């Protein structure tokens, strides 16, 4: 009965609760990782840190996160997606609580590194849970709704943290942040209860019908012996790198090159956030209701990214209407494809390798996210032009489009 309900055209109450649970849990991951950026100006003055020391806290998180993304996905395959997600949220709770009491540079740096380590399994676990609860006709829509929490996290942290920090100090802002993982842990525990209609498989079916379990390393070898997995990894390296590269540099570009004030830049980036959220949900709905393959839609959505980067880079100085238009368009280009590529990262994987495959691909996503802003800085230093830097990096999505054309969703069946 559960299976037939799950494959109907309407979402069940339990499916709504599942999406709410993982959305809240992953939102928390973004709030905790962004918390230091928000409180850093006040915290480094209080702790007598240099700006470079403060920035090293940001790097420490992403190093820890990159280390555990792949093993976290493998552990999710071994022990279950729900268990690993709840463990990640619990880890966020403990580390954020400890950061309230940090006294010096090294203990805070260690805690930020540990925060990255405990957050590593979160995305793989969430995507795995979606495959357990949603069939192929609903999965991309569910993924699109889930993805909106990434943009929403930046909004939430900026709604409360600056105000709390001004009135009660940066430690209080971290303390309030620590309550979010606690709330998410309790809510997700109850929201994710029940037996999913498409449960995770912990083994592979042999010719005689028996289920044989495999080691984590065996699953990893199978995962990377797959053309589609490597093509999605290349896609993540270039497309995700371009996405976060242009996003992290957008405010600086608007203020320094286009000569708008910081308030106008903030308004433009708010439009960017709104269009990115809407486009991710729309992308999922289109993919679920179309007969075209997901990799085709992903390539189409990603192809939008390059012209929007170019349009944004060539925005005339003083043209407010063009600024808002191209910033909003770039929000669509930068995020619309991610719904489908996240979906593909689990759909090209056999049922017992979903966490491993998504974790492997996410390693390349993180490398791209880390390297792209650095590359933009190097391009600016070499060319002396913000516009030239953006135009060069606009080529990255084209490379990703080519890689997507070699992805086949049916590749999962070859490893079964």
What does this structure look like?
This protein has helices spanning 2-6, 13-47, 51-79, 81-99, 105-119, 122-133, 139-168, 170-191, 216-224, 227-256, 262-288, 294-303, 305-313, 320-347, 354-383, 386-393, 396-404, 411-414, and strands spanning 204-205, 211-212. It has 416 residues and is mainly α. It folds into 2 domains: 2-194, Up-down Bundle (Growth Hormone, Chain: A); 216-414, MFS general substrate transporter like domains (Growth Hormone, Chain: A, Up-down Bundle), CATH 1.20.1250.20. The chain has a two-stranded antiparallel ribbon. Helix 7 runs antiparallel to helix 8 (170-191), helix 7 packs across helix 14 and helix 10 runs antiparallel to helix 11. The mean pLDDT is 85. GO terms for molecular function: glucose 6-phosphate:phosphate antiporter activity. Residues 13-412 form the Major facilitator superfamily (MFS) profile domain. This is MFS transporter. It comes from Levilactobacillus suantsaiihabitans. It is a multi-pass membrane protein.
Which helices and strands appear, and what pairs or packs with what?
Layout: H1 2-6, H2 13-47, H3 51-79, H4 81-99, H5 105-119, H6 122-133, H7 139-168, H8 170-191, E1 204-205, E2 211-212, H9 216-224, H10 227-256, H11 262-288, H12 294-303, H13 305-313, H14 320-347, H15 354-383, H16 386-393, H17 396-404, H18 411-414
Antiparallel strand pairs: 1-2
Helix pairs in contact: 2-3, 2-4, 2-5, 2-6, 2-7, 2-8, 3-4, 3-5, 3-6, 3-15, 4-5, 4-6, 4-8, 6-15, 7-8, 7-11, 7-14, 10-11, 10-14, 10-15, 10-17, 11-14, 12-14, 12-17, 13-14, 14-15, 15-16
